[in-house]
Design goal:
- By secondary structure, this protein is mainly beta.
- The protein contains 1 helix and 11 strands.
- It has one domain: Sandwich (Immunoglobulin-like), CATH 2.60.40.1890.
- Helix content is 14%, strand content 48%.
- It binds copper (II) ion.
- Copper (II) ion binds next to strand 9.
């Protein structure tokens, strides 16, 4: 093997190690889902995402096994009126955390299926890469190596 080929191979190995570490460095804590009436199709999830690593991480997608669609929203005040605005990316600083809480940043869960009941456990996931393509109707979202998940308890605020 030439020196250049060997060097390139070493670089790839280092890149892979960093990719794996990056994915392990986000931790979801204190996750809960707001209980809603059985005929409701939408709710919100709240949790803390902690970054234990030395590199900043960017959340590009969220998902749940109880919702067909999920987005990160924030409340933004425009001309004295508060509205929810979708956030395409949320940065979790190195060694820091982002808190999703009632009245602030939150995870929106759309098209609940099934509608969870109080006391149920619901899987919620954050992904540092946006999904390559939207899944077909009724198809589960493929898991990715950059995804971190946690169980959230369904409860009243
Ligand atoms: Cu919202």
């Amino acid at each position: 093997m030439t020196f250049v080929a060997c060097f390139k191979r070493a670089l790839v190995a280092v890149a892979l190690i960093f990719a794996q570490q990056a994915y392990a460095e986000l931790v979801i804590e204190d996750a809960w889902v707001r209980a809603v009436p059985p005929n409701s199709r939408t709710t919100a999830a709240y949790f803390t995402v902690r970054n234990t690593g030395a590199e900043e991480q960017t959340i590009a997608a969220v998902r749940s096994d109880s919702a067909r669609e999920a987005e990160i929203h924030d409340w933004v005040e425009t001309a004295g009126r508060k509205t929810m605005v979708r956030q395409d990316q949320v940065v979790v600083p190195a060694g820091g955390q982002v808190v999703l809480q009632s009245g602030g940043l939150h995870m929106m869960m759309f098209r609940l299926d099934p509608v969870p009941s109080p006391g149920d456990k619901v899987l919620i996931c954050v992904d540092t890469e946006a999904p390559a393509e939207a899944p077909a109707e009724g198809e589960p979202v493929a898991e990715s190596a950059t995804e971190v998940c946690a169980e959230a308890t369904v409860r009243n605020p």
